[in-house]
Amino acid sequence: MADFRLRTGAATQGRTAVQIDEGLRTYMLKVYNYMGLGVALTAILTLYIASNPALMATIAMGPMKWVLFAGVLGLGWFAPRLIMGGNTMVAHAAYWSYAALWGLLISPMIARYMGIDGGKLIVQALAITSITFGSASLFGYVTKRDMTGLGGFFMMASIGILVAILLNVFIFQSPFMSLITSIGVVLLFSGITAYETQIIKNMYSQHDGNQVANGKAIFGAFMLYGSFITMFIHILNILGFMNSE
Fold first, then answer.
1. Which end of the chain has less Cβ packing within 10 Å, N or C?
2. Structure pTM?
């Protein structure tokens, strides 16, 4: 009798583990699907703006680019609170608005590279970003090392990199410093991607209701999307520097 109960308990635990694994895979797939759709929205808007000279001039010249930059930073700060607030419609609005703002913001940069070589560098940058991002995210998913302690370091390093970029834009205006900061950004956000993936994985709970689980998936997509786009921009900058005459 005791042996029967032991076997039954082991079988129940086995089924529970399988259910958790299946639920986790479904949850992570939803995260990556949302992230991919966000990148697709950004690409569509970017290409549309890049093909319309009047819209491009409005964004590239004058205060509009700084309004968009402030919007990306502001939504990047407030969107997590909106996404995790429990309202699915608000979560979707915050995420898709964030992806749209990025598309508008980077459209002048994309248009410039499209005019140089017909978009070959853009394709190369996208391929390199996908491989780098995928490798970092996979590491974060499978590693047994607890990376939560690195959160403070990544935050401080991100602030330092942002300050260096702004100083170069407004004061130094050095192409070489731009290259160095871009390399630093790619390395930093490779680590951040692994860190974020582990955080997203650890957020999963099989007991979450649909609304909570969906909010977590959108939040995870928001985190990974930001890292992907940031890496893409700076990998494109590195390739542009390496291919400049």
1. C
2. 0.89
C-alpha distances in Å from residue 185, one per residue of 17, 152, 231 = 38, 16, 7
DSSP letter for 171, please: I
Give the count of domains, the chain.
1
**Residue 141, number of CB atoms within 10 A of its CB:** 14
Residue 66 included in any domain: yes
Tokens 């400049």 map to which residue?
A: 244
Residue 1 lies in a domain: no
How far apart CA 213 and CA 39 sit, in angstroms, is: 21
Using CA atoms of 116, 124, 197, 88 in order, give the dihedral in degrees to the nearest 10: 50
Domain assignment present for 206: yes
Judge residue 208's burial from the number of C-beta atoms within 10 Å of its C-beta, 0-12 exposed, 13-18 middle, 19 or more buried: middle
Q: Are 72 and 78 in contact (CB under 8 A)?
A: no
DSSP 63: T
Q: Is residue 6 part of a domain?
A: no
* DSSP-H helix ranges across 51-119: 53-60, 64-83, 88-117
Over residues 153-177, the pLDDT tens digits come to: 999 999 999 999 989 988 988 999 9
Q: Which DSSP category does 84 fall into?
A: T
Mean pLDDT to the nearest integer, 87-102? 94
